[in-house]
Amino acid sequence: MEPIVTHTGNTAVLPRVNVDTDQIIPKQFLKRVERTGFGQFLFFDWRFLEDGSDNPDFELNQPQAEGATVLIADHNFGSGSSREHAPWALQDYGFRVIIAPSFADIFYSNCFKNGILPIRLDEEKVYRLMEKGKNQKYDVMVDLPNQKITDEQGFEETFEIDDYYKQMLINGWDEISITLQYEDKIDQFEKSMNV
Amino acid sequence: MKPKTIIEKIWESHKVHAEDGKPDLMYVDLQMVHEVTSPQAFEGLRLSGRKVRRPDLTFATMDHNVPTENRSSITDAVSKKQMETLTNNCNEFGVEIADLNSPNNGIVHIIGPELGLTQPGKIIVCGDSHTSTHGAFGALAFGIGTSEVEHTLATQTLWQSPPKTMEVRVNGRLNPGATAKDIILAVIAKHGVDFGTGHVLEYTGEAIRGLTMEERMTICNMSIEAGARAGLISPDQVTFDYLEGRRHVPEGEAFNRKVEEWQALATDEGAEYDAVVEIDSEEIEPMVTWGTNPSQGVGIHGTVPSPEDAETGAERKAIEQSLEYMDLEPGTKMTDIHIQHVFLGSCTNARISDLRAAAKIAEGRTVADGVRAMVVPGSQQVKMQAEEEGLDKIFKDAGFDWRQSGCSMCLSMNPDFVPEGERCASTSNRNFEGRQGKGARTHLVSPAMAAAAAIAGRFVDIRYLDEAVTN
């Protein structure tokens, strides 16, 4: 997994609540047996018109969102299906950071396994960022060790994150390798519980 | 001793390792696997030279891609490859699979309970958000992503932060015509599509105790639609009676010992939850959703709301967006909404009792002109049982299409879908945009309400079906 320590990038603003993983990556693209190549299908039904051309009304197709690596989203982002294809598609498209007032639990956890930093921030702060990035190119800087988001115009907010997940992203850890260090304890548990 | 909830009891008995500043390392008793969310996990094991730690605690089936018309002819090459990949992976790693030829094949959350794999007190995971279904037995069951599928295959454990607990109390007795599906749709309509975030829900109250196991599964199934990490119900005699005699359940004296163990799991009198929400059964009418998330629903005598009714700007925008997608006007009566498709199926409502409830409505009646209605049993076992009881004949005589088992039109990863711009009364769990097909408009209902909609060609109150049809 590609680590994240600090990240600076352009933002894309998606001011819709309850964006579910069916919207992030529709079901017809879940049939692949690989982990790669999902970015082209991200937000497929919103992003493309019937003839396959870009839908000019969709937020990610606006010129100011071009090359965005930070997604600013609304409440309950990533709800619904547990499909990890959703973070795979977001990451493959280029997103490394997602900022929202709240995330669905499974999606939130899936992000960390794929080098995406999901940041929970108060609604009011998220909406301030949305205002700034809505109509123009707008870069933010994210500093994970110090748990801080800043911009060039003086925006500065800290965010909460579980230390375990933070270390996982900073170090790009493979979680299974970590767990296998506890193999003795797993053996013991199985013996004692007779499983 | 401090009284505890079943959630705390299961949590404490599954901790393999705990230390400050880290989630707990939790033991997993059962992992269910299906073809969509597992190929990359098995591939990960192969690339790192790892094995499946406990193939005996892992069970696979194929369901999402399965065609329901003719399962021996899979014309979609990509679907076919995904299913073959699962078979090959299971053979390579020694995992038991109920493939298309197995009499035990079916939707993953239907066959776990059917085979008795699902039992009280277990931690059960699957790369599928509707894993919460298994919570009906007093198991802690939750959906995970593919990285966690791989992690569980390799280590039989998961790192998990302790959940918050929430009691969802359903007071009183259900109105006639209201079903388990209506309870859960009403709870989500009342408390919102993310009230459960970060919590495991325990459903309690008189109305819940009065439900059969199959009805309890319908409720727990949709816990994820409330944003919850899981949802469960403390086990009782109803649970034990359902389990006795099933393939993976111990027999005789061993069963009696298990029952004692399971009885001790139920939440203690006086245990405290982090949060409590309530609903009175008398508030619960047969429900129909009008929007594009499961909280956007009303009783059958209700109307489509207006964006003006919203309390926040975000909610207003969500209503506007839903109404545009659903092509509905504020103030429209639910009973004036006409449908072109009916889907009876899915891990929410495709068990034998669901089919019986729908057949009772369909018997001696005819599907309305211009409506395509299909019944898709949740498993091959359910299908066989229904055919033994003659339900297939009732459905076919009424003009319903009788299919083989699979996920079918719940998410349309297979040949079954709703065409763009058309409307479907569906017993599934999600009315998201595009879920049943690009541009498809989904209304979630109970099996009886779906069958009645098929007969009337529009939504009707099942208590007054005949009046509605003659009018």
From TrEMBL, chain A:
The keyword Amino-acid biosynthesis applies. The keyword RNA-binding does not apply. Pfam families: Aconitase_C. Residues 1-123 form the Aconitase A/isopropylmalate dehydratase small subunit swivel domain. It catalyses: (2R,3S)-3-isopropylmalate = (2S)-2-isopropylmalate. GO terms for biological process: L-leucine biosynthetic process. Keywords: Amino-acid biosynthesis, Branched-chain amino acid biosynthesis, Leucine biosynthesis, Lyase. Pathway: Amino-acid biosynthesis; L-leucine biosynthesis; L-leucine from 3-methyl-2-oxobutanoate: step 2/4. GO terms for molecular function: 3-isopropylmalate dehydratase activity. It is an enzyme of class 4 (lyase). Its EC number is 4.2.1.33. GO terms for cellular component: 3-isopropylmalate dehydratase complex. PANTHER family: 3-ISOPROPYLMALATE DEHYDRATASE SMALL SUBUNIT (PTHR43345:SF5), 3-ISOPROPYLMALATE DEHYDRATASE SMALL SUBUNIT 2-RELATED-RELATED (PTHR43345). Heterodimer of LeuC and LeuD. Belongs to the LeuD family. LeuD type 1 subfamily. Catalyzes the isomerization between 2-isopropylmalate and 3-isopropylmalate, via the formation of 2-isopropylmaleate. This is 3-isopropylmalate dehydratase small subunit. The lineage of its organism: Bacteria, Bacillati, Bacillota, Bacilli, Bacillales.
UniProtKB/TrEMBL annotation, chain B:
Pathway: Amino-acid biosynthesis; L-leucine biosynthesis; L-leucine from 3-methyl-2-oxobutanoate: step 2/4. Its cofactor is [4Fe-4S] cluster. The gene is leuC. This is 3-isopropylmalate dehydratase large subunit. Residues 8-457 form the Aconitase/3-isopropylmalate dehydratase large subunit alpha/beta/alpha domain. InterPro entries: 3-IsopropMal_deHydase_lsu (IPR004430), Acnase/IPM_dHydase_lsu_aba_1/3 (IPR015931), Acoase/IPM_deHydtase_lsu_aba (IPR001030), Aconitase_4Fe-4S_BS (IPR018136), Aconitase_4Fe-4S_dom (IPR036008), IPM_dehydratase_rel_enz (IPR050067), IPMI_cat (IPR033941). Binds 1 [4Fe-4S] cluster per subunit. Keywords: 4Fe-4S, Amino-acid biosynthesis, Branched-chain amino acid biosynthesis, Iron, Iron-sulfur, Leucine biosynthesis, Lyase, Metal-binding. It comes from Salibacterium halotolerans. [4Fe-4S] cluster binds at C347, C407, C410. It comes from the Bacteria. Catalyzes the isomerization between 2-isopropylmalate and 3-isopropylmalate, via the formation of 2-isopropylmaleate. GO terms for molecular function: 3-isopropylmalate dehydratase activity; 4 iron, 4 sulfur cluster binding; aconitate hydratase activity; metal ion binding.
